[in-house]
Design goal:
The protein is of the alpha+beta class. It contains two helices and five strands; from the N terminus they run E-H-E-E-E-E-H. Helices cover 31% and strands 31% of the residues. The mean pLDDT is 95.
Length: 147
Amino acid sequence: MTEVVLPNDANPLGFLLGGRLLHLMDIAAAIAAHRHSNSYTVTASVDYVDFRNPIAIGDLVILKSSVNRVFKTSMEVGVKVFSEHYITGERKHTSSAYLTFVAVDDDRRPKQIIPVIPETADDRRRYREAAARRRIRLAHRYKRRKR
């Protein structure tokens, strides 16, 4: 997904607002989740997000998303964000995050999703690492509920 940063998306310093970037990341991830599950999906969680480099007005924002792993009704989607200078084409990695989506049916109940079949070495790595991240997410979620 590609967007251009316009003045209405920027802070007073001329850089893309963090909330606007999170919005774009959520959309890019939702599209990947929807296309994989062929159903409505809802955002369940967003992992830690770093803002490594600012994205200036006029720059392009390039978002790459992929479904890393399906668990049953949920899936992890990775999003990597780059900025690209509109004239020079210089590209910088600006952010990355993992988002969890749940597929839902017409009654908005969780729906089982077809699994991801990793094909490349990179796919297999992302698939493996997604399971470890899920264990951490669930441990944090249930640790908070016990208090």
